[in-house]
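Running this now, will post back.
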Amino acid sequence: MALGALFLLEVIILFSFIVSSVFMFLPKKNDSVHKIFFVLSVMLGVFVTIIDATSLPSNLTAQIVIAWMGLIPAALGIIISVANGRPNAVSKILVMLTSVLGALGYFFLV
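Update: finished.
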């Protein structure tokens, strides 16, 4: 039963990642749509990283540090986005990279 719930969580996260990535890069005339999906992607990346880092056993300190370092691309993406006044392609890719690193951490950090 617990593995079914975990699988459901994985599917929801994957679906959310795909939807936010697609809408983040679709050309729109309104920049607020890009900002909304950029923020949603940041929150998804942070959520995935938190799940990844806190699900590891406490004796795997190196893996926990590596998992938390997955937030660095999101931080760089946010800094670039704030410096430009709006999200550009580089900041969007960096934020997407955070979600990818967090999802890969599910499978490869343990």
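The first helix runs from residue 2 to 25. More later if anyone needs it.
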